[in-house]
Amino acid sequence: MSAQLLEGKIIAAQIKQDLRQEVRSLKQKSGRSPRLVSIQIGENPASAVYIKSQKKTAQGLGIEYTLETLELDISQKTLTRLIEGLNHDETVSGIIVQLPLPKAIDHRLTMSSIAPEKDAEGMHPENLGRVLLGNAKLAPCTAQAAMQLIESTGITLYGKEAVIVGHSEIVGKPLSMLLLNKFVTTTVCHIATGERGNLAEHVKRAEILVVAVGKAELVKGDWIKEGAIVIDVGINRVEGKLVGDVEFEAARERASFITPVPGGVGPLTVTMLMRNVVEAFRMQEKL
Ligand code: NAP
């Protein structure tokens, strides 16, 4: 069996079409467009690629996009003051702070300083708490993207066995809650699972497998359960080529659905960011 490709671009195109219409109708009602402010601290090639894609996607949807580039040596206090100014600025609907952050800047503190209703990335503690409670309005974008891809297969989630590899705050942990809220039996593996030598054993049980680690081809093709849905979030550059965390060709022979890298989760992540901005705008305008 050769798995069907889950191409994020195609699913993203459908969601963007709906978002474009929604932005148009919100603009008619409020006389304004949603606006995303992106904060970049210092220059970084990886975030530059993401920023370019954010700008292009926002503009294509009628969302205003402003990039604030800050010096690498900015203090936490100055950054917090800037974010607080944006929190109070009525023309700003959403705020995103690009990663990586310099060492002097604390990620959690920075996320907490963004007003929860303007938290475009869905990483404010209040929004993460809502993910846990099952009533999230703004959820983390990559976790939402993985969820969209899983749901796009049309499978019944109720009672399925999912295994997530990687327990980061942006992907693994929130996704485990999104799946749990749909009554999926969810196992989360992390570094200690790998160190104990138990990773393959867990992966082999997965009807839904999501891998978000950042280690090229960590998950071997012959670990994949026949017919599994495989969502590969990882992005790794190997000899100038982008590869995921799953051995793609071998996994494709066993899975029923699999995301390519690149072209799987990535295009949907930026679309989920825009969906959060539109939702944030709707909440602020009470529309
Ligand atoms: P991260 O914060 O570094 O988290 C990686 C996770 O993997 C951690 O939970 C880590 O555990 C775990 N881990 C490390 N080695 C492991 C092993 N041998 N076995 C099992 N688990 C292991 O990374 P992230 O931000 O979640 O990103 C993960 C990957 O996804 C990266 O390649 C990133 O570029 C990519 N990504 C893609 C998108 C997209 O839109 N396509 C978005 C975000 C991220 P410990 O923390 O305990 O070490």
Overview of the structural elements:
This protein is of the alpha/beta class. The protein has helices at residues 8-30, 45-61, 76-88, 107-113, 125-133, 141-152, 172-180, 191-195, 199-203, 248-252, 265-285, and strands at 4-5, 35-41, 64-70, 94-97, 161-165, 185-189, 208-211, 229-232, 236-238, 241-243, 257-258. The strands form 3 sheets. The protein has a 6-stranded parallel β-sheet. Strands 3-2-4 form a 3-stranded parallel β-sheet, with helices on both faces. It has a two-stranded antiparallel sheet with strand order 9-10. The radius of gyration is 19 Å and the shape is globular. It starts with a strand and ends with a helix. The mean pLDDT is 97. The site of NADP nicotinamide-adenine-dinucleotide phosphate (NAP) has 26 residues, from helix 8 and helix 11.
Brief summary:
This protein has 287 residues and is α/β, with parallel strands linked by helices. The protein contains eleven helices and eleven strands.
Bound molecules: NADP nicotinamide-adenine-dinucleotide phosphate
Query: Widest sheet: strand order?
Result: 1-11-8-7-5-6
Broad structural category: alpha/beta
Number of strands: 11
Q: Averaging pLDDT over every residue, what do you get?
A: 97
The radius of gyration is: 19 Å
What attributes does this structure have?
alpha/beta; single chain; 11 strands; 287 residues; binds NADP nicotinamide-adenine-dinucleotide phosphate; six-stranded parallel beta sheet; 44% helix; three-stranded parallel beta sheet
What is the secondary structure topology, with strand pairs?
Blueprint: E1 4-5, H1 8-30, E2 35-41, H2 45-61, E3 64-70, H3 76-88, E4 94-97, H4 107-113, H5 125-133, H6 141-152, E5 161-165, H7 172-180, E6 185-189, H8 191-195, H9 199-203, E7 208-211, E8 229-232, E9 236-238, E10 241-243, H10 248-252, E11 257-258, H11 265-285
Parallel strand pairs: 1-11, 2-3, 2-4, 5-6, 5-7, 7-8, 8-11
Antiparallel strand pairs: 9-10
The site of NADP nicotinamide-adenine-dinucleotide phosphate has 26 residues, from α8 and α11.
